[in-house]
Model the fold of this input.
Amino acid sequence: MPKHVLVAYDPGEKKKNVIADVLSGTARISYLPDLSAAEKDRVLAEADVVLGKSLSIREIRPEDLKKMQNLRFIQAVFAGADNIPFHQIPDRIIVACNPGAFAQPIAEHVLAMTLCLAKSLLVNHRLLAEGRFEQETLNKPLKDQICGIVGLGGNGRETAKIMQAAGMRIYGINRSGTCDLPVDFLGTMKDLPAVLRESDVLVLCVPLTRETRGLIGEKELKQMKPEAILINVARGDVINQEALYRHLADNPKFCAGIDTWWKEPGTHGVFTLDYPFFELPNLLGSPHNADDVPGVMTAALKRAAENIRQFLNDQKIFGRVDRNDYQGLNEFRAEKP
Done:
């Protein structure tokens, strides 16, 4: 009997065709929102694989998981794994996310935020709008400066390439301390203090795990250069919110570009902040849309479907998640696309 893939959300007709093209001849495909009550129980019992966007509890309910005795593999379209309810997923089931699927647009967004802050574009625009022609403040250069990148997965690697193209030197950090990408310095998390001290621009690209929650707090911010730029395209909870606000308020030459926030509509139903960040001139924000460019979701979905095909053909897969990294995260964190 052909293997059975259950898609936990409605991707739309065009994207259904993408999934069909990849898995044709490999698996039958069902879509959870399209199933009747009678069909649902049967498909849940048969499914070998689940494909979801973020694998949140909105897509896979606990009562559905209990019925999926044949389930062997769960694949996410999105890159993050911090909202997956691992405590509800049996250990026998392999879980994979989609790291690097959105890396190129995220890297471009990092460069855009860095340039905007380094060249004081928003500040100068506001001054001009007020009729003030301010030419005394110097812009910050990127060439020959140091860009520290915390996390050299797909997003970090693409960010390194684009910052190198802008003339920056790269100081990278990852778990293993190894990488085939040529950088000027490569270390592990024990080298974080040194990278903080040296970086003119620091980019956070790490997943949110038990290790990285609150990674950047008051102590780490004080280790950074007074005129450094901090860019976060990881998760909001990687930075201590109060510590960042206080540091920005107390150090007006320090800048931060934030794309990922502590409370977002996708996680908490609303965007809220505990501190008035947008009263600060040295803060640049975007609404967690660094990866949102035409065609990127289709490409990510195709990549995820191809990983499912690899799994069903007993071939090597990518993006396998070590659930130990995320143990306990859902105790304090709501779901995040």
User: Anything to note?
Assistant: Residues 296-312 form the longest helix (17 residues). The domain at 3-100+295-331 is CATH 3.40.50.720 (Rossmann fold). The first strand starts at residue 3 and ends at 7.
